[in-house]
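It is worth pausing here to work through a concrete case rather than discussing structure prediction in the abstract. The textbook approach is simple: state the sequence, then state the predicted structure, then interpret. We follow exactly that order.
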Amino acid sequence: MKRAYDRWHEVLSDEFFGADHALQSTVLYVDDEVERELAQRFGIEESLSSAVADELYWSGSDKTLLWRVTSKCRVWAAKGSTGAPPSLPVLAASVLAATRMATSDGMRRTNFRGRWYQMFGVPQEGPEANRLDKALDDVAAMWEELDSWLEETGGLYGASTVSTDEFYWRVGYPVSQALVRRSDRQALTRFFATTRLRPHNSTEVPGRELLRRLNAWSAGRGRGLSPRLMEELKFASAPSSAEGGDPLIVALLERLAADWDGTLHEPERQQRRRALGLRIAVTDKGRRLEWLADAAEGVEETTVRIHDGRSFTLRTDYGGVYSGLETLVPSEPQLRLGVHLDGDDLVIEWVPQEVVLLRMHADLGEWVSTEYFEPGEPHWILASSSSAAQVRAMLSGLRSKTVREVAAPAPGWRLFKGVRAADTSAFKQALDSSAEHSYVLHPQIRQHTKLIGGLRIAREYRSGSGVAGHYLRGGEPDLFLPASDTPDRTVEVSLDGQTENLRADPRVPFPLNCLAFEEGQHEVGTSSSRQIFTVYDGFHEGLPEGTGSLGYRCVGTSAHRVSECEGEDSRAFIRGADAASAPAPARTVVVKLKVMEAYFLDQHGTVAPVRRQEAPLWVSKRIPQASETPAMEAEIPNGAVWFVYRTPQRWWVRPADPGTPAPAPVPTREDYRWAYVVLSAADACRVAGWAEYVVAATEISNTRDRGGK
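Step two, the predicted structure:
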């Protein structure tokens, strides 16, 4: 019969590092409940702590306490590191001790060593406790060996989540595994999805930002997180936790996010499903709500279902979002209780929220829910009736004169428009307040510097120049600093070669306009990132000095016609030049490339289709990314009155010249194509004049139906 230690090693290997863990984050979580369940399932009579205690060497001081296990590890490494390392029972025992950390039995919740001694029945002080304490050096080395083995095997046995911190590095290893249970892993994959984290955290969202988002996501409900993890979140978010560096949960969240492949943790399912967070969009100037789902990479088309049996076919559309949710109109119960769209390939979820922050979508031009506040930019806030009073009081503290409150499109909800953080001191006070919903005002915590706001004269157009933009002197931008990872919480900032340590709040941008800048180029940043910008007093009228020095000097004047020059011998004229008024620039309209068909219509019955303009061959060959644009410009023909186009969802109509009233339509009775296009988009426009075109098109259609009689 195998010894209990070897039996536990087999069980732990299969349970935590089996074939079903390949390419998935694996956490060696063992608490009293897991230990009992594993012992019963596999028929192990001896406890985990007893099995490990049998391997401890108490007989003398000539060898270390764990020399038997470390010897097994050396043999295992010499034979090629096949299978999980022999140290698993010891590592699991250290995690078991970490899960028992709590304020009880005369110990504090941070006392790992006390629980470690208690596991083996050793007094808190004395020579045995000292040997157990020294054994933690070997335990830490075993954790590092496990981490290296998982990395070297390329995820075949799982992706490592082993983490620690620089202050309590030996204790940090088991504690990092004691924070996340199996149920937490599934909940955290839902959290990563709803917070719109990219697979493998490709956008490098730092651990502190993940902690901030997780606190907001779990506020009030928990979302299925275990009590132990919720307790750790509360502890990590306390102001006192920042004194000794980042809490361990920060590093662990970074590891889990880096290993997340964009799928849900569902061990019971064979097919791994992608996961997304559903978003809310406030459209039509605040008069309508729509659901919005970002397109998942690799899932161009799929079908999802809602609890009432309805199904929706989703297709990737312009702006990196899915079309197909137009008939799912957001309702008050959906906002309050949540929405779950379930499919074979994709799961999309709206987590119920009482307060929703919205920002203008760069591609869609609509107000869409977002995860963080961007100081200097306008926002909208959608608030339930139960939280409207608290939001109103919180926004009053921002001292912003642009905030307006109106009724939201959903009954019982309020919409706050024009929310901005223009007053830095007021913004910081709002962030530090104990307001219930102040989390919606928190900016994203960044790893790099970023310039925001300012009075920009012009954007930088030179690709790869590294210049953020050109600003009016006195209207320099604000500087976002990264969060500090030093014990004194300071960041070394360099400005034009001069460095200084600043203890700045990473949530609040630093106003550069308080510094005296000279005209010209300036560089600001940290050792890991920098921003270059230029400052000018403004544009100067007239031509700069030296302009035209390579041309010829003309002392004469020009005339519109040659005949006007006759008889004027005393004056010199430029002959042969046409001095007519300059031609008006061509009018254009932006057309999304995913538009299925598009036409210009005039009043006379002419239809001008819009053709896609392919990039020249020399461009697509040499600069392929330059030809991958989401839209193109189409020149508006002379006389065009309407621009009509169709997306996968519906037809759209826009006036070709919005400032001019549409002329009355005068098509012929044979302009059937013109009539077909107008009638296809008959209900797509409410602009004055369009109804007359629909009437004219209907008459042409009726004439054709009657056989032209």
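Step three, interpretation. The two ends are 100 Å apart (CA to CA). Residues 546-555 have pLDDT under 50 and may be disordered.
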